């Protein structure tokens, strides 16, 4: 399984390692060079190029049909197919603009003249025919290129499946056990040939070193060597110190600083060691002096160095032996102390694995040597994992009854149990002869551990990042609250939702990486991870995390833009118009509903969800509306009618069915009315449409103040009228138009009744103005010595049937 050994470095260091490792790549092998298609260019005939690509694809299919194709040949075919697919895609990109240009010119010419219309000139007709021919030709070529790209993609999948089948077959094969004599006798027989091959490589390497020491190459070689030595120890230490100082100065205290430092320290180890190996390779091959085989081996070792450094840096960051306060997992100090060397040992084991595997592949070692190498590596890796598990278990037992006990989630125990089982199975497989299977298990332990560790750190990083950026008490959270008028609760909810979404995406990437076909190489890994974002098919359901993530971004961005526009309308534009406050609130609310619907539709479109595919949802909703959602839909439609027709708007004084108060807010389903006791009544919108409603302030109605005063019969009516008129006119709240007036309403046997009427700007002011007028009038009447009329008292006496007071009594 040579290609499993160059699996790319997951997360962060992968792309950099591959780019740096391939920056000085050699020319293609003869097979690849002869079959690699040329890039699409404007000087090359598309028809000939596409025909050549088609022939190359047929040749690859013919080669693949040969049952004797080994894993190395399959890898070469996989590479050729990928290049072919890329070139077909380039031709699609090259021909599409030409097709658009021809279509634009046809559009300018317009449709052909209809029958009976004046004919067009011969030049225009010839140009139209030529453009039609060009359009047909380009359309055919574009479709051919697209079909080639699709066939190449299918062929790539077929090659990966074939390699997977071969790999599974290799796992099932049994070799001689290391406990048997045949195992060692075969190794002894092939030892002379293997030694000769290694000596040849050694001679080529020594020649490369000698060439690097030539006068023209000596200075670059020494500079690269010194740079590599400085990067490994002092460079890494200096980078970590600088990162710690910058984090302490510019990052807020809390969990985010801890998780960010864990990522930074992982990168410092990865880049320092990986770049050191890359510098050594550059120094040895400064002027392309290395032999092609040695250069390929060196590039493979550089990639393995990046990977092994990432493993060591990741484990070192998780254990954090020297700085317990930076430690992300809940480990005891004794456990961290016991495991402090294991990340470096595992990283070194993987580097040894990469070096030996690529050395065997380059030197063409015998089968016995390859089997022995894999057996040793399987025992070494699984032994290191088993030793780490034993140390952790021993420390846990020694602290069971102590005070320092760390609690771990269930998945940690499950992983530890699976690792223990894998170690036992790997050792049994090695000594029973299933060395390929044992090697696979050992490699998968290292691979899965790296993925789980990376997922653990990145999950903490994104959670702490969102928590720091969106905390209501933080600087960024306060800026978001002031800029977008976001409540603290909304910020906390956004932090939780965004963290959950990122966690799901990271988990999908991790699962997609773990489920990569066994025996795959870098291209297979990238393709598999890409398929996770393009579309993860589960049965008949295709999940597209990439599209869902884009739709979520569109939805959040749309809501933020809607909030900004809503705030701009309510605070800047609408206050400068002639609309009253209620009309402004209605306009803002209605536009907000429309904007949310548009943003939701755009998010669905971004997620590749067709509205036609939602017909079953509409059917279900129609059934639900018919049974239980009638009231909700009725209130929703009534709310839209209220916002559009505005029989009631925010700020109106309404009275209906025993409810009287001010309209504070019109929502989608109900309207909030604030009563006189400052409580809020929630009234369904349908009641405003179907019931009688009294709107006191509808149409900016004026308030009317009426004051009635009873006066004695002997009161000077003219003087009384003047006093009341002066009070009404001199009050600042009363209006001049309509003008106030005073009338003599009634004259009875006991009093004269005067009434004064005045108008104010709003019915809400009537009560307060009436109180002020009464105080003023009573004061004026007191100064004018005009008392109000008092009601007559009635004395009731019981005269009896013939009492002394009875008129019918004797003597009266």
UniProtKB/TrEMBL annotation:
Membrane topology qualifier: Multi-pass membrane protein
Protein localization: Cell membrane
Signal peptide: 1-27
Superkingdom of origin: Bacteria
Broad class of where this protein is predominantly found: membrane
Residue ranges with Low complexity bias: 27-44
Domain DUF3772: residue ranges: 142-202
Keywords associated with the record: Cell membrane, Membrane, Signal, Transmembrane, Transmembrane helix
Disordered: region residues: 27-48, 106-136
Domain Mechanosensitive ion channel MscS residues, every copy: 632-698
Segments passing through the bilayer: 219-239, 260-280, 300-319, 339-356, 368-390, 410-429, 435-458, 497-518, 547-565, 585-604, 616-643
Pfam hit, one: DUF3772
Xref: SUPFAM superfamilies: Mechanosensitive channel protein MscS (YggB), C-terminal domain, Mechanosensitive channel protein MscS (YggB), transmembrane region, Sm-like ribonucleoproteins
Positions of the Mechanosensitive ion channel MscS C-terminal domain: 705-784
Similarity section: Belongs to the MscS (TC 1.A.23) family.
Protein name: Mechanosensitive ion channel family protein
């Amino acid at each position: 399984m040579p290609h499993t050994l160059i699996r790319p470095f997951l997360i962060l260091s992968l792309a950099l390692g591959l780019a740096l490792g391939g920056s000085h790549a050699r020319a293609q092998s003869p097979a690849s060079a002869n079959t690699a298609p040329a890039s699409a260019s404007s000087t090359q005939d598309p028809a000939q190029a596409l025909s050549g690509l088609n022939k190359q694809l047929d040749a690859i299919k013919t080669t693949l049909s040969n049952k004797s194709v080994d894993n190395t040949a399959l890898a070469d075919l996989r590479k050729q197919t990928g290049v072919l697919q890329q070139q077909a895609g380039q031709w699609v990109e090259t021909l599409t603009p030409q097709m658009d240009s021809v279509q634009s010119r046809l559009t300018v010419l317009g449709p052909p003249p209809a029958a009976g219309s004046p004919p067009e000139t011969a030049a225009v007709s010839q140009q139209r025919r030529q453009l039609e021919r060009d359009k047909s030709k380009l359309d055919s070529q574009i479709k051919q290129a697209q079909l080639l790209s699709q066939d190449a993609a299918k062929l790539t999948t077929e090659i990966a499946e074939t390699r997977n089948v071969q790999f599974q077959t290799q796992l099932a094969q049994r070799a001689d056990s290391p406990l048997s004599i045949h195992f060692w006798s075969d190794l002894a027989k092939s030892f002379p040939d293997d030694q000769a091959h290694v000596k040849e490589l050694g001679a080529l390497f020594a020649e490369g070193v000698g060439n690097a020491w030539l006068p023209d190459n000596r200075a670059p070689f020494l500079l690269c060597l010194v740079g590599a030595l400085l990067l490994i120890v002092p460079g890494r230490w200096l980078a970590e110190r600088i990162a710690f100082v910058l984090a302490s100065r510019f990052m807020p205290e809390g969990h985010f600083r801890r998780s960010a430092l864990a990522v930074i320290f992982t990168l410092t180890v990865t880049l320092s060691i990986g770049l050191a190996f890359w510098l050594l390779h550059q120094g040895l091959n400064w002027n392309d002096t290395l032999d092609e085989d040695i250069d390929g081996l060196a590039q493979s070792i550089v990639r393995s160095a990046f990977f092994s450094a990432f493993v060591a840096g990741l484990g070192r960051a998780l254990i954090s032996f020297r700085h317990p306060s930076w430690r992300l997992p809940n480990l005891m100090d004794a456990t961290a102390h016991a495991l402090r060397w294991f990340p470096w040992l595992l990283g070194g084991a993987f580097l040894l694995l990469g070096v030996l595997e690529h050395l065997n592949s380059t030197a063409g070692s015998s089968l016995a040597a390859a089997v022995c190498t894999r057996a040793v590596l399987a025992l070494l890796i699984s032994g290191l994992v088993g030793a780490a598990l034993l140390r952790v278990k021993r420390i846990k037992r020694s602290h069971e009854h102590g005070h320092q006990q760390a609690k771990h989630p269930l998945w940690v125990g499950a992983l530890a149990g699976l690792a223990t089982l894998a170690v036992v199975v790997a050792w049994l497989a090695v000594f029973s002869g299933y060395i390929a299977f044992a090697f696979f298990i050992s490699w998968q332990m290292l691979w899965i551990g790296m993925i789980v560790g990376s997922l653990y750190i990145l999950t903490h990083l994104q959670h702490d990042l969102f928590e720091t950026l969106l905390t209501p008490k933080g600087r960024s959270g306060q800026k978001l609250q002031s800029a977008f008028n976001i409540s603290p609760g909304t910020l906390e909810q956004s932090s939780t939702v965004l963290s959950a979404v990122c966690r799901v995406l990271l988990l999908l990437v991790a699962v997609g990486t773990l489920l990569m076909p066994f025996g795959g190489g870098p291209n297979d890994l990238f393709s598999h991870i890409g398929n996770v974002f393009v579309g993860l098919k589960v049965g008949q359901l295709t999940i597209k995390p990439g599209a869902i993530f884009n739709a979520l971004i569109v939805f959040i961005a749309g809501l933020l833009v809607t909030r900004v526009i809503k705030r701009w309308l309510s605070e800047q534009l609408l206050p400068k118009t002639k609309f009253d406050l209620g009309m402004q609130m209605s306009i803002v609310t209605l536009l907000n509903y429309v904007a949310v619907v548009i943003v939701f539709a755009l998010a669905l479109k971004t997620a590749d969800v067709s509205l036609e595919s939602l017909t079953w949802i509409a059917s279900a909703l129609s059934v639900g509306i018919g049974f239980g959602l009638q009231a909700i839909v009725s209130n929703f439609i009534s709310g839209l009618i209220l916002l559009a027709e505005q029989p009631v708007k925010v700020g109106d004084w309404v009275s209906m069915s025993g409810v009287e108060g001010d309209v504070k807010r019109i929502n989608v389903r109900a309207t909030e009315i604030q009563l006189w006791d400052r409580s809020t009544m929630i009234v369904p919108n349908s009641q405003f449409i179907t019931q009688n409603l009294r709107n006191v302030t509808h149409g900016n109605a004026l308030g009317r103040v009426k004051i009635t005063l009873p006066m004695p019969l002997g009161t000077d009516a003219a003087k009384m009228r003047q006093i009341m008129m002066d009070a009404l006119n001199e009050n600042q709240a009363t209006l001049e138009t309509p003008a106030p007036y005073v009338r003599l309403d009634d004259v009875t046997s006991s009093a004269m009744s005067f009434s004064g009427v005045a108008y104010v700007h709003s019915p809400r002011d009537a009560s307060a103005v009436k109180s002020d007028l009464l105080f003023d009038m009573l004061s004026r009447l007191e100064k004018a010595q005009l008392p109000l009329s008092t009601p007559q008292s009635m004395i009731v006496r019981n005269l009896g049937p013939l009492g002394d007071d009875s008129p019918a009594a004797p003597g009266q």
